[in-house]
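Justification of computing resources. Each target in the renewal requires a structure prediction run like the one illustrated here; the chain below, 99 residues long, is used simply to show the kind of job we budget for.
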Amino acid sequence: MNAMNEQTRAAVAEVRQTNCEFLTVPQVAKILKVNKNMVYDLISVKLLRAVKLGSTKVATIAVEDFIREMDAGLIEYDHVTKKATRHRSKAKSAASPNK
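Resulting C-alpha coordinates:
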Protein backbone atom coordinates (compact mmCIF):
# COMPACT_ATOMS: atom_id res chain seq x y z
CA MET A 1 0.00 0.00 0.00
CA ASN A 2 1.25 3.47 -0.84
CA ALA A 3 2.12 5.81 1.97
CA MET A 4 -0.37 8.62 2.48
CA ASN A 5 0.57 11.88 0.83
CA GLU A 6 0.79 15.10 2.78
CA GLN A 7 -2.67 16.30 1.72
CA THR A 8 -4.25 13.03 2.83
CA ARG A 9 -2.44 13.12 6.18
CA ALA A 10 -3.66 16.69 6.71
CA ALA A 11 -7.28 15.72 5.94
CA VAL A 12 -7.17 12.73 8.30
CA ALA A 13 -5.61 14.92 11.00
CA GLU A 14 -8.40 17.46 10.55
CA VAL A 15 -11.01 14.72 11.05
CA ARG A 16 -9.29 13.53 14.22
CA GLN A 17 -9.08 17.07 15.64
CA THR A 18 -12.86 17.28 15.75
CA ASN A 19 -12.90 14.96 18.80
CA CYS A 20 -16.37 13.83 17.71
CA GLU A 21 -17.63 10.39 16.82
CA PHE A 22 -20.08 11.84 14.27
CA LEU A 23 -19.85 14.81 11.94
CA THR A 24 -22.63 16.77 10.28
CA VAL A 25 -22.83 16.97 6.50
CA PRO A 26 -21.56 20.60 6.49
CA GLN A 27 -18.56 19.54 8.63
CA VAL A 28 -17.75 16.68 6.24
CA ALA A 29 -18.10 19.02 3.26
CA LYS A 30 -15.63 21.45 4.82
CA ILE A 31 -13.09 18.69 5.55
CA LEU A 32 -13.37 17.19 2.06
CA LYS A 33 -13.45 20.66 0.46
CA VAL A 34 -16.66 19.94 -1.45
CA ASN A 35 -20.21 21.25 -1.19
CA LYS A 36 -22.95 19.65 0.90
CA ASN A 37 -24.70 18.21 -2.15
CA MET A 38 -21.57 16.24 -3.03
CA VAL A 39 -21.51 14.75 0.48
CA TYR A 40 -25.14 13.70 0.11
CA ASP A 41 -24.27 12.18 -3.30
CA LEU A 42 -21.40 10.21 -1.73
CA ILE A 43 -23.78 8.96 0.97
CA SER A 44 -26.46 7.98 -1.56
CA VAL A 45 -24.00 5.87 -3.61
CA LYS A 46 -22.74 4.24 -0.39
CA LEU A 47 -19.21 5.68 -0.48
CA LEU A 48 -19.76 7.35 2.89
CA ARG A 49 -21.59 5.51 5.65
CA ALA A 50 -24.12 7.74 7.38
CA VAL A 51 -26.94 7.55 9.90
CA LYS A 52 -29.98 9.67 10.46
CA LEU A 53 -29.89 11.07 14.02
CA GLY A 54 -32.21 14.04 13.70
CA SER A 55 -30.10 15.17 10.77
CA THR A 56 -27.74 13.06 8.70
CA LYS A 57 -24.48 12.29 10.51
CA VAL A 58 -21.31 10.64 9.23
CA ALA A 59 -18.98 8.73 11.53
CA THR A 60 -15.49 10.19 11.70
CA ILE A 61 -14.03 6.75 10.95
CA ALA A 62 -16.14 6.63 7.75
CA VAL A 63 -14.62 9.95 6.64
CA GLU A 64 -11.11 8.69 7.42
CA ASP A 65 -11.77 5.46 5.50
CA PHE A 66 -13.13 7.40 2.53
CA ILE A 67 -10.09 9.70 2.42
CA ARG A 68 -7.68 6.76 2.58
CA GLU A 69 -9.56 4.80 -0.10
CA MET A 70 -9.63 7.79 -2.44
CA ASP A 71 -5.92 8.39 -1.86
CA ALA A 72 -5.13 4.74 -2.59
CA GLY A 73 -7.16 4.83 -5.80
CA LEU A 74 -9.66 2.28 -4.51
CA ILE A 75 -12.65 4.49 -5.31
CA GLU A 76 -13.60 6.11 -8.61
CA TYR A 77 -16.53 8.51 -8.73
CA ASP A 78 -18.06 9.99 -11.88
CA HIS A 79 -19.49 13.38 -10.89
CA VAL A 80 -21.69 13.57 -13.99
CA THR A 81 -23.43 10.19 -13.78
CA LYS A 82 -23.04 9.94 -9.99
CA LYS A 83 -21.85 6.36 -10.36
CA ALA A 84 -19.22 5.02 -8.04
CA THR A 85 -16.86 2.11 -8.38
CA ARG A 86 -15.09 0.66 -5.38
CA HIS A 87 -12.11 -1.47 -6.36
CA ARG A 88 -10.87 -4.39 -4.31
CA SER A 89 -7.48 -3.91 -2.72
CA LYS A 90 -4.69 -4.88 -5.09
CA ALA A 91 -2.77 -6.22 -2.11
CA LYS A 92 -5.52 -8.77 -1.38
CA SER A 93 -5.68 -10.00 -4.97
CA ALA A 94 -1.88 -10.25 -5.15
CA ALA A 95 -1.79 -12.29 -1.93
CA SER A 96 -4.27 -14.92 -3.13
CA PRO A 97 -2.57 -18.05 -4.53
CA ASN A 98 -3.16 -19.15 -8.11
CA LYS A 99 -4.63 -22.61 -8.50
